[in-house]
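hey m, so remember when u said the tokens were messed up on ur end? i reran from scratch. heres the input so u can diff it against urs
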Amino acid sequence: MDIIEDVLSKYKKIAVVGMSDNPARDSLKIARYMHKQGYTVYGVNPKLDGKVVDGMKCYSVLKDIPDTIEIVDIFRRPDAVVGVVEEVLKLDYKVPVIWTQIGVGNPEAQRIAEDNGIIYIDNRCLYIEHSNL
């Protein structure tokens, strides 16, 4: 079993950082898809704090999610990814996986995550990888 297949079969709670409520945005399309596949999905976006989008509760920041997240899926600019990784490291529990969507990767963020024992999946689309399994 490869790392992608292992991650997607083992971990079922996802925080989508940068989720939008705009149906044209990939962040919402992918969150919807994963939710329909049986994953628990939370949106993270200060503009959506407290809203429920297609059955997915949204929060301003990761630490506000009242659940233990297993995959942090990032839809932010590459220069914002280090900040997201630093936010993950401040949580009261260890997040096993950080996933950056296509075009979102950041080598410094990857180094920080991996130095802290977090699986870092870079420059891959969660939807594409899941639908290929």
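this time it looks ok to me. The radius of gyration is 13 Å. if urs says something different then somethings off w ur setup not the seq
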